[in-house]
Amino acid sequence: DTIWMLLASLLVFFMHAGFSLLEAGSVRRKNTQNILAKNLCVVVVGFMCWWFVGYSFAFGVAEDNNKFIGHNNFAAGGFWAAPETFRFWLFQGAFCATGATIVSGAMAERTELKGFAIFVVFMTSWIYPVVVYWVWSGAGILNYTDDEGNVGAANGPSLIDFAGSGVVHLVGGIGAIAGAIIVGPRKDRWAAHLVDSFDGHSIPFCVLGTFCLWFGWYGFNPGSTGS
């Protein structure tokens, strides 16, 4: 089980190389360094936040739990009591970072690194973990077991999301469209005489990034089996 989950985690983690290549190839050359820094920021800052509070809010079900947010296992506390938690933490951390990096491409070329870093902190510490708790913790408002042993949600049948189509991609997608609406289009993006100047600078990067994402995806669904 550990080897299976570690392999799946590494495949999902490798998707960040794909995101980096795809996004770098899709922007103008002058913005390559900025978009690569954002992808690196997602992994570094995102995993730190996931370690400190994100996992706790997402899966930290306690005896006095509620249906909104977890509050146990802060900073990996208690993991050694159940060592298999480490592999689960790594796999879910890769999911968390993926949800955040979706947003970087949607706001490419028009967001400063420091502003994006602040967003990453909120996304990986609060926004994403809360949604995860609602669906995947087994105690959240959209999927929980009541005192009589019945599985359901606050408003009917429980929400089932096997590999993150809603939890990961919908949350990241909503963050992306919200960010794109807030920052708006790039300056002169729709000026007729400048339309060609916004083309991505490297088709090879885009293609290589696509293959990396494709390859990494083989860890997304299989790893979601958990064992």
Would you mind describing this structure in some detail?
The protein is mostly helical. It has seven helices and three strands, in the order H-H-H-H-E-E-E-H-H-H. The protein has helices spanning 2-26, 32-59, 84-106, 113-136, 165-183, 203-216, 220-223, and strands spanning 139-140, 143-145, 151-152. The chain has a three-stranded antiparallel beta sheet with strand order 1-2-3, covered by helices on one side. A hairpin with a 5-residue loop joins strand 2 (143-145) and strand 3 (151-152). Helix 3 (84-106) packs across helix 4 and helix 4 runs antiparallel to helix 5 (165-183). It is globular. It starts with a helix and ends with a helix.
